[in-house]
């Protein structure tokens, strides 16, 4: 685990990186799982993580923070609260009550689906998408599509961890 | 949906209560689902909700906030961050990587299971359990047991909403419950 080297590194990042635990062979053999629960057990590291995002997005007229179930629910709300934005949970099927829109995305084997409430987001909203980690980008891509279908402008995606070796399916702007 | 009338009511509570949406017949016919997503769409109401909990727990030497998947993940972390406590996610089976302890609990039909990481919590930790809503209290009860098995002292359970007719408050192993709004 290393912090990003291609940008001037904030001194808080090394401590954040060191608090993330790698669990081998989870959820299946060959996968080195990036476990952020150990970051959450370190109040300073957790605070620094949120602060880094809040500092970046304060004053950028972000009106929506969308968090991807479930670990995006841990990082998204503190950011939303600090910048005064709405928080919108993006969820697996049949979790959100009431009317939703759905976006299907491809898994290694088969497909999955992400849902968002109708009416949560309007044209003119400026949105962030937050998750703990980006791997292939499939889930984040589905999240972007949901927000754009509702008329929002997705300003940026924000994750604690990136696995850069995996092919990402976001457009170059992100 | 009403704020609790049996205590001096903070003026912020009425606004919070009014942002909660009731969705009939979800997830199945007959259930009036208390939907907090509309609260989350109101930055002032969401901030007030978190502030009410933070004001209550600041200075009480709380070292752990445990949040129940998934809506407890929305309210727990802001509280933990504000009071300087660890946040511990309590999850459905097979979601947490590494070694876990499990606590089974009873559903209307069948059972379910809540898990916590081994090592997340130690003897001496003073814990809050946070979820969006208490119904029968089954999930909260399982959460309390997990924390106590790991040696923590559960100080209180904190929920935004209580469904008092389901008497969940009586199923918390004697632990106190703090809530903001009641739904009858």
TrEMBL record, chain A:
Keyword Glycosyltransferase in annotation: yes
Keywords assigned by UniProt, alphabetized: Cytoplasm, Glycosyltransferase, Purine salvage, Transferase
Record CDD domains: PRTases_typeI
InterPro entries in alphabetical order: Ade_phspho_trans (IPR005764), Adenine_PRTase (IPR050120), PRTase-like (IPR029057), PRTase_dom (IPR000836)
GO molecular function, one term: adenine phosphoribosyltransferase activity
Location within or outside the cell: Cytoplasm
Classification via SUPFAM superfamilies: PRTase-like (SSF53271)
Domain called Phosphoribosyltransferase: residue spans: 59-168
A single BP term in Gene Ontology: AMP salvage
EC number: 2.4.2.7
Catalyzed reaction equations: AMP + diphosphate = 5-phospho-alpha-D-ribose 1-diphosphate + adenine
A Pfam family: Pribosyltran
Biological or metabolic pathway of the protein: Purine metabolism; AMP biosynthesis via salvage pathway; AMP from adenine: step 1/1
Cellular component terms per the entry's GO annotation: cytosol
Family: Belongs to the purine/pyrimidine phosphoribosyltransferase family.
Assembly: Homodimer.
Protein's UniProt name: adenine phosphoribosyltransferase
Organism this protein belongs to: Phoenix dactylifera (Date palm)
UniProtKB/TrEMBL annotation, chain B:
GO molecular function, one term: adenine phosphoribosyltransferase activity
Signal peptide: none
Location of the Phosphoribosyltransferase domain: 59-168
InterPro entries: Ade_phspho_trans, Adenine_PRTase, PRTase-like, PRTase_dom
Enzyme class: transferase
Enzyme Commission code(s) on record: 2.4.2.7
Gene3D superfamilies, sorted: 3.40.50.2020
GO cellular component terms attached to this protein's record: cytosol
Locations listed in the record: Cytoplasm
SUPFAM superfamilies the UniProt entry points to: PRTase-like
Pfam (any one): Pribosyltran
GO biological process: adenine salvage; AMP salvage; purine ribonucleoside salvage
Reaction(s) catalysed (UniProt annotation): AMP + diphosphate = 5-phospho-alpha-D-ribose 1-diphosphate + adenine
Pathway terms, separated by semicolons: Purine metabolism; AMP biosynthesis via salvage pathway; AMP from adenine: step 1/1
UniProt keyword list: Cytoplasm, Glycosyltransferase, Purine salvage, Transferase
Record's keyword annotation contains Transport: no
Coarse class of the protein's main subcellular location: cytoplasm
Keyword Transferase: yes
Top-level taxonomic group: Eukaryota
PANTHER family from the UniProt entry: ADENINE PHOSPHORIBOSYLTRANSFERASE, PHOSPHORIBOSYLTRANSFERASE DOMAIN-CONTAINING PROTEIN
Protein family according to the UniProt entry: Belongs to the purine/pyrimidine phosphoribosyltransferase family.
NCBIfam families: apt (TIGR01090), PRK02304.1-3 (NF002634), PRK02304.1-5 (NF002636)
Assembly and binders: Homodimer.
Name assigned to this protein: adenine phosphoribosyltransferase
Species: Phoenix dactylifera
Organism classification: Eukaryota, Viridiplantae, Streptophyta, Embryophyta, Tracheophyta
């Amino acid at each position: 685990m290393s912090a990003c080297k291609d940008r001037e590194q904030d001194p808080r990042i090394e401590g954040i990186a060191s608090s993330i635990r790698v669990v081998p062979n989870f959820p299946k053999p060959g996968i080195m799982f990036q476990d952020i629960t150990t970051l959450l057990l370190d109040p300073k590291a957790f605070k620094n993580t949120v602060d880094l995002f809040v500092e970046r997005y304060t004053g950028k007229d972000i009106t929506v923070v969308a968090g991807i179930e479930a670990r995006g629910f841990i990082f998204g709300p503190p950011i939303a609260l600090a910048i005064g934005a709405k928080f919108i949970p993006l969820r697996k099927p049949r979790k959100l009550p009431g009317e939703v829109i759905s976006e299907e995305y491809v898994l290694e084997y088969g497909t999955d689906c992400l849902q968002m409430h109708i009416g949560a987001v309007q044209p003119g909203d400026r949105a962030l998408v937050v998750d703990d980690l980006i791997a292939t980008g499939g889930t984040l891509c589905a999240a972007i599509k949901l927000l754009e279908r509702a008329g929002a402008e997705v300003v940026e995606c924000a994750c604690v961890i990136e696995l850069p070796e995996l092919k990402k399916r976001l457009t170059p702007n992100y």
